[in-house]
Amino acid sequence: MRAGVLLIFLLLASSAIIPMSVKAYSGEKTHIVATLQIFATLAEKVGGEMVSVDYIVPQGMDIHSYSLKYEDVKKLERGDLIILASSEFFSLDNSILQKFQNKEILDFSDYNATIYPLDGIERNLHGYWLYPQNALNIARAIEKKLEKINPANSRYYRENLIKFENELNEAITIINTLKRECDLQNSTALLAVPGTYYIVKAMGIKIEGSIVKGPNQFIGSEEIEKIKEKIKRGEIDFVVNAYGLEDSRAGQIARQISAETGIRVVYVDIFSAENYTSLLLKDASILSGASYVSIYGVSEENHLPYIIIITLLSAIIAVAFFEVYLCRRELLR
């Protein structure tokens, strides 16, 4: 029963996000300030107890429309390391780069990131950090920079990086299972905004295009009609938008297309950043569910949500005990 695959996935996901402890070394903490919270989260994964992290753009706010405030400048002045998403693409990052050239800085060129085109966007940098390999490359760049700043803790940073890499590989293994079992490679999505591209791409789902074509540029009525025809022919399975952008212009167009064709609008999370692998697995479950429904439909009497809740609670308790056992075994060595 394919619905059971989603149940197994969520059970495994609950265990994949519980961290193992790594012994910290001594010394002063390195203070890191990132433009975006997700970069600060990755820095904390690598730096652990030997870093303090902060970020500039409030969660859920568009980096394109954000301007530096007085308190942001003060944060950056206190930072030992500044992490930018891209000073070439984001004006905010460029402004920071110009003001703080004397600081240790990580920028897009340090990440060896894989960038894909999307419709008229030749290099879609929106949300590139959500692609698993890009997230790992960012973490590696942070580890390398922290070793330079504080070489005494090099081993600690490397151990944390390995731990994150293992955690990410576990998540990717689960996602690959979902791709196979839910036949995701045969699903096609229309994106509302370019920022959802890398999450959808990571799931192996084919991408038809985006409602947003560029800054304040959207598909016109003629293209909307073509999309509706494709939906009627079964060439597009669902529309993907981001939580928090439901009432944006792209979100309104997505809902209009849904109302006129009956296609589902699925909302993924691209803004939560407390834990990268949790975000990845959460969105993987959402997109797998969307694909499952588009292929198999939903029965009227569906007990799966209740089974998932009970199983998740049991799994979390079991994993917690197992992690305590592993930590205790490490301490007794």
CATH superfamily of the largest domain: Nitrogenase molybdenum iron protein domain
SSE order in H/E notation? HEHEHEHEEEHHEHEEEHEHEHH
Total tally of structural domains: 3
Name given to the CATH architecture of the largest domain: 3-Layer(aba) Sandwich
Ends: how far apart? 44 Å
Strand content: 5-15%
Residues in helices, as a percent range:
40-55%
How is the largest sheet built, in terms of strand order? 2-1-3-4
Given helix and strand content, the structural type is: alpha/beta
Q: What would the CATH topology of the largest domain be? A: Rossmann fold
Care to describe what's here?
The chain is α/β, with parallel strands linked by helices. It has helices at 3-16, 37-47, 70-78, 91-99, 132-149, 154-181, 197-202, 221-232, 249-261, 276-296, 304-332, and strands at 30-34, 51-55, 81-83, 104-106, 116-118, 121-124, 188-191, 206-210, 212-214, 217-218, 238-242, 264-268. The chain folds into three domains: 17-177, Nitrogenase molybdenum iron protein domain (Rossmann fold); 183-298, Rossmann fold; 300-333. The strands form four sheets. A four-stranded parallel sheet has the order 2-1-3-4, sandwiched between helices. It has a four-stranded parallel sheet with strand order 8-7-11-12, with helices on both faces. Helix 1 packs antiparallel against helix 6, helix 2 crosses helix 5 (132-149) and helix 6 (154-181) runs parallel beside helix 10.
